[in-house]
Structure formats: C-alpha cells, structure tokens
Design a protein that fits this description.
- There is one protein chain.
- The chain has one domain (18-256): Jelly Rolls, CATH 2.60.120.
- It is 7% helix and 42% strand.
- It has two helices and 18 strands.
- α1 runs antiparallel to α2.
- The chain is globular and about 45 Å long.
- It starts with a strand and ends with a helix.
Length: 259
C-alpha cells in the first residue's frame, strides 16, 4: 500500500495558523504516538520560527544559527531535520512543567553529530534553572563528568547526584552518521541509555525522586548554564513520562531505520 500524503495545518497560540506542508505519516510516527509522548517535535519545518510539538503543548521558537529542511534520519519518510550550528542555534519552548511530578521518563531522538572530532559539549535538551531543580541531557565531548568523551550524560531528576546521573561510554556518539538514542529513567530501579536498540549504559538507582512541578525553561540545543550549544542535526525528538521498554524502543527504531 502506498503512503498517503496529508496536508496538516496548526493553530499556534499567539502566532496564528501555520501550514506544515505535505507530510508522510509512516510507521515511525505512528509507533511514537502509540506510546503517548508528552511532547514530540519532528523538527522537519521547511521555514518559519515555530518548532511544532505534535502533541500541541510545547511549541518552540527557533533562535540563532538554525538550518531548516536538512536530510532527515528516517527511511521512507519525507520529513526533514534541523541543523544546529554549535554557536547560536537553539529552540526555546518557554517555561513549562513537562515532566511535572513524574518518577519515570524517556527522551528519544535521532542525532547526526558533525565532524570527526568535536571538542565542546552541546545540550540536547533541558528543563532546568540555575540553582533550581530540573533535568538535563547533553553530549559530553570533553569528559567533564567521568572522563568519557563523545558520549551522552543524562540527569533525569531534580537531584544532581551520582545516584541519578548516567554517562555513556567513550565514543557513544559516532560522527557523520544518524543514530537513534533513547535515555530512560525508572525511579527506584535504573537509568539506561540505548543506541539503535542496544543497551549501551546502565546504572542501578534506588532513588525515587519526582520531577519539579514549578515551570522551568525548556530549551533544545543549549542550556542557560555553562554547557555549550549543540552542533549537528537533530530529528524526531520525543519526551515521555514513562520508561520505554526494550520492545517498544525496537519497534520505534525498526520503523525508522535504513536511511
């Protein structure tokens, strides 16, 4: 059966109506929606200031050095991706409480990191405020936390302590290729990082914190602290208030792999 092209319009508060253009709604999109994400940015806009959240809650605005409509991660999908320049480009989704009160979460995305050797850290996304509670996921290129380089560091709770902070192995991030990542947290049990369905890092944790309830700045591609800007392409970014199971992670990946 051939894919059906749909023409999608969005009404964004304070901005008016936006036309996202013809879109293919393939298996990957449906697999993500089946797990009911809190927010899902496809990041395939061809122009304009709005980064559309498919769930309708956390539309963001593109800022600084952003290149729209670069080649996307997914096979059999016309949707594109966005490229961050590593110095000024990011997405501002305002002050939100995306994971308010949750004791579990997953952050899922496809990443194409530029260059054979990256020497500065870059944020994937954060809901954080300096001196206050929040959560954070970043590309740790410099070995700032444990000495591992070219990896991901995931702090998924209001407590920035080793029991709820996971860093992947050196060279988890592979340059000049698309990889699918999922970072999961189940309070009182574990933190995990998957790459292309494979479990790459795990930390047992008996801490059961809940995410902060008060709104925090939600940023994609940068932080409001000392960490740097993301350099590379990002696609199909989703946040869930549950820990995706290995079976569901495989279903998502298999529906999109093959680019």
């Amino acid at each position: 059966m051939s894919a059906v092209l749909k023409h999608i319009d969005f009404e964004v508060p304070n901005w008016g109506e936006f036309d996202a253009g013809p879109q293919v709604r393939p298996g990957y999109y449906n697999e993500v929606l089946a797990d009911r994400p809190l927010a899902y940015w496809r990041l395939g806009e061809s122009r304009g200031p709005i980064a559309i959240d498919e769930m309708g809650h956390c539309h963001g605005t593109y800022q600084g050095g952003i290149s729209h409509a670069t080649e996307g991660a997914l096979a059999f999908d016309h949707d594109r991706s966005v490229q961050f320049d590593g110095s000024t480009g990011y997405i501002d989704a305002g002050n939100v409480s995306l994971l308010s009160g949750s004791t579990a979460c997953s952050i899922e995305f496809w990443l194409y990191q530029d260059g054979p050797s990256i020497t500065s850290d870059g944020v994937i996304m954060m809901e954080w405020a300096n001196g206050q509670a929040g959560w954070l996921l970043w590309v740790d290129q410099t070995g700032w936390i444990s000495g591992a380089q070219n990896t991901l560091t995931f702090v998924p709770s209001q407590l920035d302590v080793p029991a709820v902070r996971l860093e992947g192995p050196t060279d988890l991030i592979r340059p000049n290729m698309w990889d699918h990542f999922v970072c999961t947290f189940q309070g009182g049990e574990y933190l995990r990082i998957y790459r292309n369905t494979q479990l790459m890092a795990e930390l047992a944790s008996n801490v059961i914190p809940s995410m902060p309830i008060a709104p925090r700045p939600l940023l994609i591609g940068k932080t409001n602290g000392s960490l740097g800007y993301l350099k590379g392409r990002l696609d199909e970014l989703a946040v869930y208030d549950l820990a995706l199971t290995p079976d569901r992670i495989a279903a998502h990946y298999n529906a999109g792999a093959g680019r």
